[in-house]
Structure formats: C-alpha cells, structure tokens
User: Fold these one by one.
Assistant:
Number 1:
Amino acid sequence: MDSAPQTPQPPVEFETDPSRYRHWQVSYDGAIARLRMCVDPAASLRPGYELKLNSYDLGVDIELADVVRRLRFEHPEVRVVVLSSGTDNVFCAGANIHMLGMSSHAWKVNFCKFTNETRCEIEDATAFSAQVYIAAANGTCAGGGYELALACQEIYLQDDGNSAVSLPEVPLLAVLPGTGGLTRLVDKRKVRRDRADVFSTTAEGIRGKRAKDWNLVDGVFARSKFEQEVMKRATALATRKVELLPGERKGVSLGPLAPELTPGTRRYRHVELRWSSESRTAELLVRGPGPADVAVVQAGAAAIHDAGDSLWALRAFRELDDALLQLRTNHLDVGLVLLRTAGDPALVVAHDAALWAAREHWFTNEVLRHMARTLRRLDLTSRSFFALGDLNNDQRPAFAGCLLELALAADRFYLLDHPKVQVGTSVLNEGPLPMSHGLTRLHAHLYGEPDKLEALLGHHELRSAEEADDAGLVTVRLDEIDWDDDTRVAIEERASLSPDALTGMEANLRFVGHENETSKIFARLTAWQNWIFIRPNATGPDGALSLYGKPQRPHFDWNRV
Amino acid sequence: MVSTTVDLNAKIPNNVGLSDDVKLQRALETWLPNYLEWWNDMGPTDFADKPVFLRTAVSVDSDGWAHYDHVRMPDYRWGIFLNPRDPETSHIRCGDDAGKAAWTEVPGEHRNALRRIIVTQADTEPASVEQQRLLGHIAPSLYDMRNLFQVNVEEGRHLWAMVYLLHKYFGRDGRDEADELLQRRSGDPDKPRILGAFNQPCDHWLSFFAFTMFTDRDGKYQLAALSQSGFDPLARTTEFMLTEEAHHLFVGETGMDRIIKRSAELQALDPNGDIRRQGGIDFDLIQRTINYWFTYSLDLFGGEISSNAADFFATGLKGRYREDRYDEHKALTGTYRLPVVENGQLGERDVPMRNAMNEVLRDSYVQDCERALRKWNRTLEEAGSPNRLTLPSRRFHRHQGIYADHRFDPVGNLIDSNRYEANQRHWLLTPADNDYLLSIMKPVYEPGKFANWIAPPSKGIEGRPVDFEYVKLHD
Ligand SMILES: [Fe+2]
Ligand SMILES: [Fe+2]
C-alpha cells in the first residue's frame, strides 16, 4: 500500500497561528486554559479521507504543536491546561486510519515522529514550565487519542457505561500504537505489564472502575458530574503551591517567520536552507548572533524579555526548527544535510554565557528549553548530517557554544585547518541542552574518553582547529589543499549508501549510553513500528491496515520473525 | 452448596445442563439475587403481588414452550433455552469461512467482537422493561395490561438468555458485563443504556404500541441475523428468543391497529370528524408517533457504511436476514447503491456489499414495516376513513449513520435546518402530544372493558374470552 499521493501535493507548512486553527478551540481563564479538540472532518491536510470522530492527521497535530508552544511563550500565566473534546461522547478516535492506510511509508513515519515530539513537548511543559496538562476524556478515547491523554499528567474518564480508553492498534490494525502509548503505559503510568498486555489486545478497551483500578486513568466521574469534577481538580492544580521562576508574567507573542522562498532555497532571517534534488543533498546554514544581539542578552533578563520573539536565540532556533520539519516532510529525496554556521564564535560564547546568567527569568527558561527541543529534533531527524567548518564564501564558521551543538549532533564534523577557523565550548554545551536520553551531546561525543570531556568542561576559550582536533571534537581536520577533494568524496560516498541502512546506523550511533523513557519511545518503539508498518501483515495487500474498513478480512503470515 | 444447586435447577427451567454445570451455577448464584433486586426496583411498579395470566417457557418441546397460568411476576420462572439443532446443520453460515463447522466454544480471535455483540443485544432487554415500568397504571384494559407484563417478563428472560452466554462462555469478563447490565438505567444521564432508542421515554400506551411495533421489530431482525451466527450457542439461543419476540410484535402491530380502528370509528361518529372531541387519538398524532419511533428504531441497525458490519459478516458472527435463503454467502463481490449527501446534494454511491450489511438488514426491516402499514391502511379503508398513514423516509430524523448530520423532511428531501426546525412539531411527537395522550389514558381495570381510545381485540389469549380476568387485581 505504499502508494504515494497520485497528484503532486503542495508542501506542508508547519507554521500556523490561532486565527487559522480548524481543529482546536483554546480559551483562557486566568491560570486555567481549556483546550478543546473539535476536528473539522472536511479539513484534512490531504484529500481522500475525512477526519471523523475527532480523528487526526498531521494538520491537526501541527495546530496542537502550535497551541502547546504558544501556551508556554504567550500565556505564562497558565498553570493548568484542561484538554477535552468539543464533541460529546468522543474524546478522540486517534490517528485517522484511512489516512494511514493511504499514506506512503515515509509519510506515516514522519507523522508519527512529529506527533511523538508534540507529546514530549506537552510533558516538557509540565516538567519545566509548570503547565500541567489534564486530559478530560468526555467520551471514547482510542488509540492515538489515549496516547494524547497519556502525555498529560492526569487523565480523567467519563463513567457512562460506554466511554473507554483503548489502544486497539494491535488487534484491529496489526500495527503498534505509534505515539509512545506502550512505553508510557508501563514506564510512565506504571501499569502492570501483564495488564498492559490485556489492555493492548482488547480492541474495545477498558472503561469505568477497572480503568481506574489498573491506573489507566486517574479518576472516573459520572457523566453529570464530569465537567464539575474535572474543573474542581483543575482549580486545585491551578492554585497548587509551585515555585515559579521570577520575571513579569507577560506573554511573548510569536510572530510569523515569513521565510523568503525561491526554487531550491528557503531563506529566514538567521537560517538558510538550500537543496538540490540532483545531488540529493541540502545545506542548512545558521548565522550566529551579531554584536547587537549579544548586547541585548548581556543587558539582562528584562532586556531579553523585552526583545521578545526577535531575540536571536529564539528566532534562530525557531527558524532552524521549521527548516528541519521542511526537510523531513517536503524533501524526502535529500539524504545528506550539510550543516554550516557563520559568524563570530567568540560572540556565540559570550551570548551563551549571558543567556545562561539570566536563566532564572521564566522567558529565558522558555528560550533555553526551546533551543534544547530544536536540537533534539535534529538528533531525531533521519538524514545524514555532516557539519562543515570551512570558510564558505569567505565567512568564518561559528561552531561554538549553542552552535557547536550542531556539529556535535552531526554524524561527522569536518573542520578546515585555518587561522580564521576557531571552535569553542560554552556553558550551554555542559547541560542545558540535553539529548532526549538525558546526556549532553558533548558527553555522548566523548563517551569513551572521560578525560577529554573533563578537560573541556568549564574551559570556554576558543580553540584553533588543531586544538579542537586534539580535544576530540573533530572527525576530520583538513587543510585548504585537501578540503575540496576530501569533502567531495565523503559527500559522494555518503550519497551512494542505502538510505535505510544509514537511518538505522545513525540512530544507533547517535544515542550513545543508557536509555530513558523518551529515548525508548523514539528508538525502540519507532524502530519496531517502522518495521511493522512495512510488513505485509500490516500493509501488504492482505494486511490489516490496508483492509481496514474494506469488506475483506486480513490474512496473516503466521511465521514469527 | 448442594441444596442451593438443587434450588437453582428447580427454579430455572433450562435445557443447558444447569444441574451439572458448576461454573454456571456459581455465576448465577451471585447474579440471580441482583437480577431480582433489579426487577423489584426497575420492573413494573406496584403489580408484584397480582396474579397475571402469563406464558412461561418450561422446555423447548412443542408443548413446553408455551405454558399458561396465573403467576405473580416475581415468581415467574425465567428459564434458559437453546433451540435444539441438528449438529449437521450447525455450520458457519456466511463470510470467509461459510460452510465450515460452527464454533461451539468462543473462538479467541472473535471473543471481543462476540462479547460486544452479545452485550449490545442484552442491554436492550432490561432497558425496555425500565422504559415501560409505569404503564400498568394507565392500562386500557386487563387484556392489554397482561400483554404488557408478558412482554416485560419475556424481555427479562431475554436478558437471562444473553447473560447465560456471558456467564457460560466469557469467564470473568462475562460475569462483569452481566453485572453491568443490571447497573445501567434507561434514560439515566450517567449510566445510560447503550443504544439511543432505549433511552427515550415511553410514557403512554401509544408509544408502547409503537415501541413494540417498531423497536422490538429491530430486535427481531437483530436476533434473526444473530441466529445465523457461526457461534452455535448464540445462534440457538436467539432462535428461541425469536419465538417470544413474535408475540411482542403482535402486541405492537395489533395495538396500533386497534387504535387506528377506534380512531376511524370515532371519526365517523363525530359530526365534524373530530376524533379528539370524541376523546380519541387523531391520525396526525398517530403519524407523528410512527415517524418518531420508526426513525429511532432505524438508528439501531448501525451505520450505513460500516467496517464493523463488514467484519461481523466476514467472520461469520452475524448473517443477513434468512441467510439460508441466499445462494451465495461470501458477499465479497457486488456493491450496494446508497443515497448519500455529497457537496450539499443528495446523490448515490456504490458501497462494497459487506460494508453495507447493516443497510441490507435495514431493508428487510423496512419492508416488514411497510407490510404493517398496508394492513393498517386496509383497516382505515374498511372503516371508511379517508385518512392514510405512511412510513417516513429512512433518512428523516436520524441520529446515527450518514444521514445524522443532515436534515431531511419525512419524504426524504434534503432541507435546511431552519425548515426542519419550523416543521418539527408537525412531524414528530411533541410535549403537547404527550400531555394530551396522558389526559385521555385513564386505567380500565374491569374485565372485558376497554378504554374509549382503543378497539377491543378480535379474540382473547390462548382460547380465553376477551372478558377473561387476565390480571387478578382483587384477590
Ligand atoms: Fe427482547
Ligand atoms: Fe421484545
């Protein structure tokens, strides 16, 4: 069923704003925000399916991601977000099955990845922005709908004899819950794993008291009292004692990025994306902060707050985030991304130090958390990344501090040995921007060389290419004579390898060290899910996903692999 | 323990080997007291100590399934019966495995689907008892009161039949589901019955007759489809239930017919043909009642395009009406042409046959209802009334399926919601209708006497005269 859309579709844009929402209603009442899912069945992102029963596609989730992000930046007064459905008796039926059935493999995978990232962002907001999400399931809560609820800190289910929570993917579709459902069930909610097994193979799910007894939900309330009880709980959470970061709680609105588009390029203020289908490569350039940008940050927390969405660290990383999503969804043929930076590395280090000094302000905290999430999106992007530190168009590279993270996230780092090329670490390389499994990229990079790691920590002076190489930061150091040929060969070689094998290899190597709940969701679950998606039992002509809603019954190959 | 077992077996007529089935005994020992408590709380009010001339099934033999006597309802012997079946004919009747041997145990693969089918059917049985619990107080005659109670105790037995399957074949889950059947309540906002029509109030006898005519008739078609199930115990138990259901349909169809006949008489009697002035039920009101209950009952068949329906058919869990009369039982090829709303207009679409199985069953049902309407119109013709009654379009007033999001008039034309709102009171039962009906429905408890708004039946029950004391109110 890997039938890519027949007619070419317009590229997907990930930027949106409340005036354009089709699927969500958000209302604010002091510390409590109400988020209602009211999916417009006719407003699917792609033609060919209807978003019935509050089922979702990528378009619905793009809006949700926007809501979650804006809540953090624009509504710092909010302590509790009550997530419910605008449709009585249906909370959310999960990802739209017809959409999944007709989507290409790549589309499904990218869709699941994005929904996972949005769920993680909800948890991130709860953990680091004191914005607690409560799922108020005023109706059936199935598959991705329950996974959405699982991302919330608390789940309440209407007890009407009918409304159930369920993960029907295995029994109904022969795939896995694709948005972290299985992991969150046993790791986050600590549902006993044998019960999780029963639950995940019971298509109709579990309702009422048993859902509560098994800790699938935190409470069940009768239909007539549901709204009242949920709001009672929301009010309790909204007035809970919580140590809030200081700073005037005035929201910062996120204006449009408005990139300039020409064939083959997408230019933002600080970021530039170029791609070539011919060479199957793209170049992603991030320009570092200028002196004025650094001055703003050095003026302290209030000045940073005043700068709002024009702050370099926020703007540049929002642009980078958008560019990564563009690459993932709209440029499937690009296998290798060349990461470049431009600017003054000393300014980046100074910028980072000043930003870190202001971290106690709620807005600075949000900016740092956002930078961290964007870099995690980079780690989780299934393309080869080579960081290139050369004098591109005579611009100095700025692989320092937060921009050195790009090189540390990359699969390889090529550095030109030239007096104008310098590399440096900052405080931001040492903890504030962790990978999804909790390690810093520096730690993951030097996992087997703790002495070298130790030697780098706290030493933020710039290093020459040679010093950087000695410090263990560089994959290949090349002089000007070798640079062009060696990088060209490396790029061409990379482009010749199997994209599938590379995806698997890179994901294995990038996440050195122990796993945690989030990394499990992305690594273990998505790897299995992707495999299951391409197996005939799910998506072959007789597979359960292909035949869902059709008159034929699936036929399985009973051999275990 | 032993004495309880003996008690149970004596109390419960059955042909399922209850005396030897320890598992079933244990389940029923807990469930039975809860059932009786439910019956006392939610069954017919205030008539528990009155002997009613009831039919009890004591065995499946031809002389055993209809045993008549005066019985107090709480003492009714609710039994458990499977229709006898020649093992030769016990095969899967439809779907991919049509022709293979039927399942005598629940196949694990279909366990959850079967449980859902059974629970959904089971839930309707106690629901209708709850809906009808107050009607004895305004019964138009002892004959009708007896019929009401007969329907009620048999709905109770239908619940038993379904609970038997849950207890016998679905282990602990089944016991939990059986308990929940006694906890849900018709019309309760917190614990409603599963299906919409079973949460609608049924507070006078016109609705009762329309309900037994139209809603019980849905039950007949669901039971008939389940009697084609590849799960042998389900097929056999529903087959037996159909024999009782036939009486409920008789009550509904003849009850409506008697009202129609009486209204025509009152119409002829009144100088202006004003039925209400004569204390009867006018034809517009009857038409609104038909419109209301027929359409709520249509909803019970499920979505017009349904993957569940396709699955149930494909797996052999649920067949078509009289599946045995079809030549071909796979239905993999072929389509069903369905009127659909597309781009704001009514058009047509071809749907794979299996996905249209709910609609196929609904077709059989609608034809049956049309037959009853023809009969009622003959009654009108014979009585010399110029009025005729009609069935509304199956698109009108729907709450489930592809028409639920659109507005249609009773003929089936797509209309805007303004027009719908403006005409609703001409098309559907209104609170004023209910007030009027309650104002004329005073109890008539004298043997052989009937309320003014309904004609007597042509004959009594089981050879007894019409003026027989079907319910002994004064003992
Ligand atoms: Fe029944
Ligand atoms: Fe019935």
Number 2:
Amino acid sequence: MMSKIKSFDELKSVQERLKAGRDPKKPCITVCVGTGCLAYGTQKLVDSFREELAKRDLTGRIDFRTSGCHGFCERGPMVVISPEKVFYQRVGLMDAGEIIDKTVLKGEIIDRLLYVDPQTGEKYVHEDDVPFYKKQTRLVFGLNSKVDPQSMEDYLAIGGYSALGKALTTMKPEEIIQEVIKANLRGRGGGGFPAGWKWDETRKAKGEPKYIVCNADEGDPGAYMDRSLTEGNPHLVLEGMIIGAYAIGSSQGYIYVRNEYPLAVKNIHIAMRQAREAGLLGENILGTGFSFDLKINRGGGAFVCGESSALFASLEGRAGEPRAKYIHATDKGLYDKPTNLNNVETWANVPFIIERGADWYASIGTAGSKGTKIFSLVGKINNTGLVEVPMGTTLREIVFDIGGGIPEGRKFKAIQTGGPSGGCIPEKYLDMRVDFDELTKIGSMMGSGGMIVMDERNCMVDMARYFTNFLVSESCGKCVPCREGIRRMRDILVDITEGKGREEDVDLLEKMASSIVDGSLCALGSSAPNPVLSTIRYFRDEYMAHIKEKRCPAGVCKDLITYSVDPEKCTGCTLCAKVCPTGAASGERKKVHAIDPTKCTKCGACRESCKFEAIIVR
Amino acid sequence: MEEKVKEIIQRYSGDKSYLVPILQDVQKEFNYLPKDALYAVSTHLSVPVSRVYEVVTFYKAFSLKPKGRYQLSLCMGTACHVRGGELIARNVADTLGIKEGDTTADLEFSFETVGCLGACALGPILVVNGEYHGHMNIAKSTKILKKLGKKGATDDEQD
Ligand SMILES: Cc1cc2nc3c(=O)[nH]c(=O)nc-3n(C[C@H](O)[C@H](O)[C@H](O)COP(=O)(O)O)c2cc1C
Ligand code: SF4
Ligand code: SF4
Ligand code: SF4
Ligand code: FES
Ligand code: FES
C-alpha cells in the first residue's frame, strides 16, 4: 500500500523513485490479458510463465507483467519481450518455458511465434515494425501495453498523474477549460460535441453539488474500445476525470459501466482504491485542498442508457428512459444538478492535453477534428482489433494498410461506422479522410468508433434489417414514432428480405424515416433510420434485386437463395452429407454430390464445411 | 432468502440509487429474480414494489423466470453478425427446440443472444456458463450442444 502523497513535488519524487527502481535494460515479459486474449485461454499461459520463472529461480531477475489489450486481438495470445520488444503472437499455452530459455535468456528468436504478414509473406521480429502497429499513432491506447492495469506503480513510473499535479498546482480551473477548448477536444462518445464548452457551461451553471460522469456504457453492439481502455488503463481515465472535476468545480463523480464488463468494473475499483490511498482521489488531493471522489455504478445493459438523460435516470436507480431536454444537463442533469457527461475516451485524452499543451494536441488531426481516435476494426478484416489513428486518416489506410485487407481474397463491399446510429459506406469513399464532419457528410457518423468491414458475402438489406431490429428491441417505447415507426420499418425490411417487398417500399421507408427523425425525443429514434437510409442511398440496386428479381445477390437472405453443388469443384469428399441435418446433401464417395432443394432448410452447414468452395448459394 | 437479500442491500449501505446493481447481485445469487426476493428488496430498500418491477422489466439482463443449468449466450454484436452469427443462432435454437431468450422445459438449457462481448477477433462467440468458445460455426455449436446434452442428460437423452 502506498502512503499518501501530499504535494506535487512529492509526487515527482515518487515517480522518480519508481522509475529509478526500474532498469530499462532488465528483461520484461509482458502478456496481454485483455478480454480478447483471455478468451483464447491466456490465463493458463500466465500461470505457466509464473511457474516456469519460479522453477528457474528467475522471479526477481526477470520482470513479468500482465497488461490490458494491445489492440491486435486477432493474434492473441500475445507476448512482448522487452527491452528489444520482441513480438510473439498466437503463442501456445505451453510455450512459456521455451520463451524464457531461448529468447529471454539467450536472445534467440523463436521463428514459429513471429508475425508473418499474410499479404507479403514477410516476417517481423519487433513489435514496432509490424505493419498493423507501424501505421498507427497509439497516443492514448499505446500506454496499455506499458502498464499492469492493477498496478498504480506502473502508471506512476511512466509519469502518470503528472498532468493532474500540473493542473492542480499550476493552473486555474478556467485556464484548464481554455486549454481544452483550444485543443478542440470533441466528445468521443458519439456526437463530437466540444468538451471544453460543455465543461465551461457546467462550471458556470448555478446549483451545487456539480457532478461529472464517465459514460462507459458502450452500447454499440460492435465496439469495445471503451471497455479496453477502462479495463487496460483505468488510472488514465481517472486522471482525466479528476482534472475535469477540478476544472468544473465538482466534488462527486460517477462512472457508469455496463455490467457485462466485469473486468473493467474490477480494475476501475482497484484503481480507485489505490488512488484514494495515495491521496490522488478523495479529500485534499495532493495536499492542494481540492477534494473529489468517485462512485462506480453498473448499468443494466440497455442501449438507450448510453443517452445522457436515460443514463442519469439509471444512475438514480430508475428505468432508463430519456427525458425531454428543454434544459441542458449542464444545468440540470443527475439529481437535477449541473452535470457534465463525457465518454471514457474523451476523459482519457485530457491528461495528454494538459501535459503537452493544446497547441501540440491541435497539431494532430484535421481542421475540425483534433487528436486521435480509437476504432474497433472488426468483421471481414484480416487484422481484427483496436486501432488508433490521427483524425483524418483515410478509410483505405485503416482497412488495407493497418487492417491488412479482406480475408480469403474476397472483395471489399462496405464499411459500417457509427453503430446502430450510423451508416454503411461504399467503396467509392475509401479515400475519404475520417473525421467527425466528413462521416456526417456522407450519411454516416463517427459514433463511438465501431468500424465493421463487410465483403461481397454480406447483404446490405440484411444489414439494415439487423440494425433496425436491434433498435426495435432497444427503443424505450416512450415516443410513438420511434416505438411503432422503427418496428414498421423493420417489418418492411423483413418483407423485402423474404421476397415479399413491393417497389414502392423503398420510397415508403424513406418517408417513414423523416417522420421518425422529426417525432423522436432522443437520438436513438432520430438516428435510427440512418442504417436504412445509407444502404438505400448507396446500394439501391441490391434492394431492387430483392424486390424485383426476388434475388439476394450476396446469398444471405434465406428465402431468396438456393443451395446447390458446383460439379466442377466438388471432389466427392462427403463432408457436406455428413453435416447436413436433414439429409438434403447426399452422394457417393468421390462422386459429385447433390442437394435436394425440397429437403434443404438452408442452414448453411454444408457451405461452412466444404473445403473446396463447391457449395453454390444463389 | 430474505437474509441474503438483506446482506446484499447492506453491501450498498441501503442506498436506493443502487437498485440496479442490487438486483444484479440478487439475480446472481438465485440465478433469476424470484418474486419473494423482489418483495424483500422492496421492503428493505423502502422502494415501492411497482418501482422494482418497472426496473426489472425495463432492463433485459433481468429474468423473472428460472434459467437453465447451462446458460448459452451467443454474441450477436455486429462483428459476429457479419461473420454468420445468425445461422449459428438458428442452429442452436432449432437443436434445443426453443426460441432465443427461452429455457428448455427441463431447465437444462437457456439460450440468449447478446451484444458485443469485446472479443470480436474471435467472433462469432458462444459463451457457455461464462466460458468463451471462439470462432464458432454451425458444426462446432452442434458439437458443444451434444457434449452438454450427454453430460446433462439424466436418463435416455443420448442420441
Ligand atoms: C441511444 C444512445 C446511446 C448512446 N450510447 C453511448 C455510449 O454507449 N457511450 C457513450 O459514451 N456515449 C453514448 N451516447 C452519447 C451520449 O449521450 C453522450 O453524448 C456522450 O456520452 C457524451 O460524451 P462525449 O461528449 O464525451 O462524447 C449515446 C447516445 C444515444 C442517443
Ligand atoms: S426516441 Fe425512442 S428511445 Fe428515445 S425516448 Fe423516444 S421512444 Fe425512447
Ligand atoms: S463438402 Fe464440398 S467437395 Fe465435399 S462432397 Fe460436399 S460439395 Fe463436394
Ligand atoms: S444448407 Fe443445410 S440443409 Fe441445406 S443442404 Fe446444406 S447442410 Fe443440408
Ligand atoms: S485483448 Fe490481447 S490484444 Fe486485445
Ligand atoms: S461483436 Fe461479437 S464479440 Fe464483438
């Protein structure tokens, strides 16, 4: 346990002491234990490393650290060996002993654990050279691999809480707000509202106490960067919040995390306790007289609870229904007191702005969007993971240079951004520079940073149906246009995917969209039509193929496709017949198989099992 | 049951604003929210029972019905969806003979779909009693169900 740090100077000496106690040349094995890597069974590897180190009597001589997500979840389990930063991926759960003996002790490289670029065939030894990392700017997220999320010493040793010290001892609250305004930090949770202005409004609002809240609800069903930040570097988020509290004049804050993120809840709890013990949270922070404390609240897992007024209702222990916003939350939010809500990533950017200055920060990014953004690059992409790039990076760079393109040589079709409130972007915009304003211009939005890549086997009508269906179940039901309108849109989309669509449906969908936008109280409703509108805008042909020709070009919509065997490609391996649950697929060994369409339920098992791409879906 | 509920409420110092987490903990304890537990929460937290029900029925994570011994959650987040999650969901539901969100009559299996689990690289993902099974496909899900069905069967359920 750390004793209370009573001044900025003392903080500096603690940091120095910790830094000095760490020999940068001493070997350190870092294993990622983010949620993605844990799902590969990495805990076993961690236990085995500890055992093998102890067995060799190396426990003190070689550092061992577990860290949060490194971003390249596709390649877990993942081990990085410092100081050289040798990068091992897809590490076997029994590989610990070999890594210690060969790489750590003798400096030998284990060839089979190296990353091989699937496109060029080139091998990489060092983490920084791997193309996935090389083309990123991992300002915020990069710290994840440098700290054990449960160790405040780690965070302090890399200079953590310096920004807090600087803010509390050398800056007035107004100066901090001006700095954040000058940096033009925009909210990373969806809307992109300038954080500094919001802080300013809350500071100037009448009413006590003032609250600050961190939105870690992350309701977008295809994004996980907020989780990985909270889980992987909780002190960074805390530091940003404490600075914000001081600037705004708040003594009480809340962190609203979804219950589905147990590791994030745990790590933030630990971080809060450590920060309190060290005098960085609670009464009289760093001996400056400023007091601020935090509570953590677990959300009930409703998408709408990410919306500010619904989130406050949920924090108060009520059902999370949005309220009309005649009055800003900055005036009357949580418990009707002035409240400042920001997203996890927004808070996490604050220490960098304070530490290195607004001018430096504003030098990154585009005219209207500053700094970096973390995206969750997922779907039909080779390098699935979390990527952080400067605002203004093109989609092509993200998808092809960092993401490594589309698997199995298939063709890129679209990229979906902004979650259920966003839209699908077609190939012709691949060279667009991604920032808040550009995405909005083409009918999508930044949202929280989900990027879902789709290939030729994804159907755009089906995607529209998927998101609309999600929103039907997530609408809180307060406004009729949202509750009934989205449901009707979903029904029409289902009809189209089932071959029952009518030509006038597309126009009808567009008309309904505008009344839903007008008649909805919160942004869940008013942005709900985006997935439908953007797919109609860019993929009208696909809608028409479903409606007029009763055909799903991507081979997805069950009622419009038939399964058959390509006699040219079928080798007669019999696998499809084995997995077919209905006996529709059959044939003799080494002879071309066939599918009986009257028995086929279109379950897809045969296509999945065939190694020769011989199952045709049309 | 009442004692357990009291103890959970104690953890939150009887603070009403923690109604949602309290109910989460109660559900964790009993695997669902029995009626008596809801009344106990209402009494000891001094919250009208109607408010408790409002909250319970609003949030999807709460269940008023008992859940199965094996709880299966399939990720239907966007990333898992585009990788074919829907076909797997259909297979699991058909194999169990229930709709998603339901529990089999013998209380052996519950099946639900959920949003992103934060491990999209391994998608599609099937979680069985908290354990992640990645790169799921139709055949693998059938296999997992078979294995559980055999273990879970009391008498003649073997195929
Ligand atoms: C339906 C809905 C869901 C939302 N979900 C989230 C979320 O999960 N996380 C988040 O940070 N913001 C979410 N937002 C945006 C928040 O309302 C709010 O704008 C944001 O948290 C403010 O922080 P920022 O300015 O730092 O982005 C959501 C908005 C709506 C309308
Ligand atoms: S727009 Fe939809 S989600 Fe928002 S308050 Fe109205 S009904 Fe609820
Ligand atoms: S699995 Fe493919 S190759 Fe094998 S028999 Fe079936 S269609 Fe032919
Ligand atoms: S789609 Fe399913 S039912 Fe149809 S042939 Fe293939 S395995 Fe059999
Ligand atoms: S969880 Fe290990 S790299 Fe993402
Ligand atoms: S969408 Fe399934 S884990 Fe992210």
